[in-house]
Amino acid sequence: MRTKILDTMTKVEEKITLIDSLIEINKAVNLQDNKSKKVENNKLRKLEPNQTDKNYENLKCKIESLPADSDEFKMLKTYCDNTS
Fold first, then answer.
1. Are 67 and 73 a contacting pair, CB within 8 Å?
2. What span, in angstroms and rounded, lies between the C-alpha atoms of 43 and 37?
3. Which of 27, 37, 55, 64 has CA atoms 20 to 30 A from the CA of 21?
4. Which parts of 1-84 fold into alpha helices (H)?
5. Which residues contact 72 (CB under 8 A, 6 or more apart)?
6. 38 and 30 in contact (C-beta within 8 Å)?
């Protein structure tokens, strides 16, 4: 590649404008890369349980779903239907 001589002020100003534009493009690309990395990190990060879940966990109890045909389920469903 042949070196070009910047022999006029106009050529110098054109090159400065070009360099400024390249710097701005580089900044924009870096911002976009950082946003992508933050999104990836957020997806990989484990979600924190809410306070109610933490409190229940401290009770050292186990939650199990009830079969819909069980007497307990029917009683709770009736209770919910009548109190809502």
1. yes
2. 10
3. 37
4. 9-44, 51-58, 71-83
5. 66
6. no
- The Cα-based distances of 2 to 5, 14, 22, 41 in angstroms read 10, 18, 21, 45
CB 76 within 8 A of CB 66: yes
CB 12 within 8 A of CB 6: yes
Q: Which amino acid is at 49?
A: P
Reported as a single tens digit per residue, the pLDDT across 34-70 is 777 776 666 666 677 888 888 888 888 888 899 999 9
Q: What is the pTM of this model?
A: 0.41
Distance between CA 40 and CA 27 in Å, rounded?
20
Closest of 77, 78, 58 to residue 66, by C-alpha: 77
